[in-house]
Design goal:
Blueprint (H helix, E strand, L loop, with lengths): L2 E6 L6 H11 L4 E7 L10 H12 L5 E6 L3 H7 L4 E6 L2 H17 L4 E6 L9 H9 L10 H10 L6
Length: about 160
Amino acid sequence: MLKAVFPGTFDPIHYGHIDIAKRAASLVDELIVAVYDRPLKTQAFTPEERIALAQEALEGVANIQVLGYAGLTVHFVQSIGAKAIVRGLRVGSDFEYEFRMALANKRLSAGIETIALITDEENTFLSASTVKEIASMGGDVSSMVPPHVLQALNKRYSVGKS
């Protein structure tokens, strides 16, 4: 039984994340979408909110579970008995970063593999930072996130709007 982890901050989860998660879930027996609580990085949503948004976005996919974690990703992967880390690649610079991370993780735990999935063409521009920036300025991100995430973003950034 192959268990894999798809880690990220998912702040917020968007259609690019959802696509990678569903495609990865079709390749493994169990996929853990691991929502990272990254205290050094400012988040728009709390870890609990990000977990809830991800759970709703991925409900109905039987072999996906959403969990929160802190610390090194490779330690979390080991702690739950997973054998692989799933990463999504959008552009060439993603490959360089993910390649270095995969090598570092391999050094920390030789038994953990990295599975890189190439994003669908329609999602190559998508990033949580882009979604937040557009939403914070009142732009329409309805084609980038599920309706419940759009609602959460609108609520989060409604301060100061008339």
